[in-house]
Amino acid sequence: MVGQCVNPKCGRELRYLRDGRIYLFEVVAMPGTRRPEHFWLCGKCSATMKLNLSATGEVKLSPLPAQANPHKVGYPDLPFPRAG
Ligand SMILES: [Zn+2]
């Protein structure tokens, strides 16, 4: 069972399933066999990264495109400085 964030640099404990993302991948258990396994990426890590399964059956972290980060959304600059 998933116990902590799959990012080795994070390692945050799983407490709430609503925090972050759960992934289900068919990983290679033994050569020629695969089994389903769950992986959890915490909320902080899933804001900037995602999980992929490589062709060889390994789970890999990869960065999300910058525009996918909801915390980086800003407002367009105003043409004139606002008074007050
Ligand atoms: Zn994490």
Tell me about the biggest sheet? 2 strands, antiparallel
The low-pLDDT segments are none
Bound molecules: zinc ion
Question: For the terminal residues, how far apart are their CA atoms?
Answer: 55 Å
Strand content: 25-35%
- In total, the number of strands is 4
Mean pLDDT value: 83
Global outline: extended
How is this structure best described in words?
- By secondary structure, this protein is mainly β.
- It has one domain (1-64).
- Helices cover 5% and strands 35% of the residues.
- The chain has one helix at 43-46, and strands at residues 21-30, 33-41, 49-53, 59-63.
- The strands form two sheets. Strands 1-2 form a two-stranded antiparallel ribbon. A two-stranded antiparallel ribbon has the order 3-4.
- Zinc ion binds next to α1.
Q: Could you give a short description of this structure?
A:
The protein has one helix at residues 43-46; strands at residues 21-30, 33-41, 49-53, 59-63. It has 84 residues and is mostly beta strands.
Strand and helix layout:
Elements: E1 21-30, E2 33-41, H1 43-46, E3 49-53, E4 59-63
Antiparallel strand pairs: 1-2, 3-4
Residues 5, 7, 10, 12, 42, 44-45 line the site of zinc ion.
